[in-house]
Amino acid sequence: MPLTEGLARITTFITAVTATAQVGPNMVQVTVGGGDLIGFVPLGADQFVYVLAPPAGHDQLTIDRGFTWTQYESMDVTARPVGAYYTVRRWRPAVAEIDLVVVTSGHDGEGARWATRVAAGDPVALWGPRRIFDPPADTERFLLVGDETGVHAIAAILDELADELPGDAVIDVIVEVGGECDEVPLRRGPNTSIVWKHRGDAPAGTTRTLLDSVRGLHVAPEGVYAWGGAESRVMTSIRRHVRDRVGLVAEQVAMTAYWRR
Q1: Which pLDDT does position 98 carry in this prediction?
Q2: pLDDT in tens, 3-31
Q3: Given pLDDT bands bounded at 50, 70 and 90, which one contains residue 2?
Q4: How many angstroms separate the CA atoms of 244 and 34, rounded?
Q5: 7-130 and 141-259 in the same fold
Q6: Where are the domains of the chain?
Q7: Which candidate, 127, 107, 192, 106, places its Cα nearest to that of 157?
Q8: Which CATH class for the 7-130 domain?
Q9: Within the chain, how many helices (H) and strands (E) appear?
Q10: CATH says 141-259 is which class?
């Protein structure tokens, strides 16, 4: 997820891990709470934060709530916090807690390594929140696509849409995961279609499953909003299709590279 304008206004929250749980064979839920999170103001739907964890060799944070990316660049490499972007799957204001879900298989990055070793009580900072989901007011049909890295943002979007949309709104969801064991519960409305695609032993980000599935939909450009979160090249291909072939304009499309193969 690329940095955008106005980053200096984004907050750094100093907090701590309160619990971890294995929520699937390849996913770990990390709950953080307390500290500065009492002042967290949610943005809704696909909001995300950057996890800032202690670097290797440190058991405490090397930053404080005044952290900026300019500061990061000037820090000694060994002292720079490590982490990655993650969707806020749930925000519980009564207890100032956030649930983050981390994919730990096939994504050998700093965030995955952190999630597999972190424990309750460990310090962590969160930089954010930000969001991308921003459908035009006249949207009547939603196309949501993703892989296992984007499915929890899709789950959060479906929760929000269920509470806000009129009953005749149409939602098409297509998610590619390794297999049935990687599927997660998704809220289904009366006009919601949810399609799971299993890639089997193929590495994530190497198939045309999502692109071919989107191509197979009959979508007229009027009143449609297309959102996606998956591997970078996959998102680029789908963006080109819905822009060039379907005819959606820029405001109707948000295909975000959640990671790069």
Answers
A1: 97
A2: 444 676 899 999 999 999 999 899 999 99
A3: very low
A4: 47
A5: no
A6: 7-130, 141-259
A7: 192
A8: mainly beta
A9: 5, 11
A10: alpha beta
